[in-house]
Specification:
Layout (H helix, E strand, L loop, with lengths): L12 E10 L4 E9 L5 E7 L8 E7 L2 H5 L7 H15 L2 E6 L2 H4 L2 H12 L4 H7 L12 H6 L5 E5 L3 H9 L3 E6 L10 H10 L17
Parallel strand pairs: 4-5, 4-6, 6-7
Antiparallel strand pairs: 1-2, 2-3, 3-5
The chain binds guanosine-5'-triphosphate and zinc ion.
Length: 216
């Protein structure tokens, strides 16, 4: 386990503690931060020596309880989280930040309301707007101080989202490389993934083939 000083890194959040976290793919170290404004617990799963100055394989994952925990097939979140952990494990080095901004920042209950609207014919963007939210309410400001805790300034970022890359660069976090993360296209999330590509700019064309077990 890497020694990490248990000291606050910036005003917006405190670094709190860490523990070993064995997963099916590797034994990560789980680090916890607490955001002052909300009390939310944001997490970093770290493997290997990421503070050596070289770009770090990384995922900046937004919480999706339904996809990450409850196996929902409405989105690709759970498969992306697993895919990212597998890739980090395969390289033996990297970090997965788990940010508690559920439902692109609108929360679980509102995401469920958005799903109901989607069942009535709205797409994922229209449903958010119908509820009075922007298509994407996320804020990545905590990423920079979280990475700073580990002396990480440059990422090989696993994402299909160009706005996430732009957000990192606006924070002063260098994205040395984009690593595509195309997983779990199924009959339930086809429309959702197509809308992400068409309206949110996700880099997912041409459509990836259905992922095989173990394929990332
Ligand atoms: N409001 C809303 N949020 C959703 C919906 N489906 C998934 N989410 C949330 O969207 C977030 C994941 O965002 P995505 O746009 O799928 O992916 P991304 O992280 O921006 O992009 P990638 O890095 O390529 O995965 C999580 O917080 C999910 O809870 C939906 O239909 N409505
Ligand atoms: Zn999801």
């Amino acid at each position: 386990m890497q020694p990490v000083a248990e000291t606050p890194v910036k005003e917006e959040l405190d670094y709190v503690t860490s523990c070993a976290l064995p997963t099916p793919w590797a034994q990560f170290t789980l680090h916890a931060f607490v955001e002052h404004a909300t009390g939310k617990e944001h997490l970093a799963m770290v493997l290997g020596d990421i503070g050596d100055g070289q770009p770090v394989l990384a995922r900046v994952h937004s919480e999706c309880l339904t996809g990450d925990v409850l196996y929902s097939q409405r989105c690709d979140c759970g498969a992306q989280l697993e895919g990212a952990l597998r890739k980090v494990a395969a390289e033996g080095r990297g970090v997965v930040l788990y940010l508690r901004q559920e439902g692109r920042g609108i929360g679980l209950i509102n995401k469920m309301r958005a799903y109901r609207l989607q069942e009535a014919g709205y797409d994922t963007v229209q449903a958010n707007e119908q509820l009075g939210f922007k298509a994407d309410q996320r804020d990545y400001a905590l990423v920079e101080p979280m990475l700073k805790q580990f002396n990480v300034t440059s990422l090989r970022l696993m994402t299909n989202n160009p706005r996430k890359i732009a957000a990192m660069e606006a924070l002063g976090v260098k994205v040395a490389e984009r690593v595509p993360l195309l997983v779990n296209r199924n009959k339930f999330n086809q429309h959702y993934l197509n809308t992400k590509a068409a309206k949110l700019g996700h880099m997912m064309t041409p459509p990836p083939p259905a992922a095989e077990d173990g394929e990332l």
